[in-house]
Amino acid sequence: MFRIVDKQELAAGVFRYVVQAPEIAKKAQPGQFVILRLNEHGERFPITIADWDSGKGTLTLFVQAIGKTSIEMSQIHVGDSILDLVGPLGLATEIENFGTVVLVGGGFGIAAIHPIARELTRVGNRTISILGARSRDLVLMQDEMKRVSSEVRVATNDGSLGTKGLVTDVLNGMIIKGESIDRVIAIGPLVMMKAVSDLTRPLKIQTRVSLNPIMVDGTGMCGACRVTVASEMKFACVDGPEFDGHLVDFDGLINRLKTYRSEEKKSLDQFSQVLDDECRLGNQ
Q: Which pTM was predicted?
């Protein structure tokens, strides 16, 4: 059992959890993830490690309540426990002095690039972090990213903070101005990572993306997280989660993630009905 020691709701349906997991915190590295199971009836789902404290033995995780399991997790409180927490899983991000590294975080991808930016800055890189979200209240970890990056730039869809537009608009602006970019790391929605990769491919700027498809065991046995990279089948859990963005078959992966859309909706509808029934009984 893994106890929740802190929980904050940063925006509507957006939660930051600090979880007691000392053995995982001792081994965690930038770019790695954990797989959770809330209870004995729950599904297994991956979450990138946003931060850790090996001294306190804690992990920081971000969750948005949009599906059945994430909504269920949003109801967990400080002092409650998660049944299973496995990790750290996946290959760690390559950390060395590349020069100028642009880290692009879209939505919850901001949490994922946080430890990567910290380590890249620590070894001497000039790190420019581009943070993107629909609106200012959904731009995560601004203060934390400022502390671990050489520079932070923001893009919001509605223009409520930073540049009005997409993270790719900010990145493209840098390219047009001729700013030096030695490496790009993009983490966020698949369509965003695909757009970033398409932008950097003609310029041959090394671009790494982190893939988070459906996972079950996280050890490469089930094959649920398979992705096509350079026309070869890879498993995101053990071969990744980071890959060369110029070689990923994004279209194929996007189509695969639609496979269980109807089952996911059915599960959410059934869970919502249970919540409604419990609420009615509680009000009687």
A: 0.88
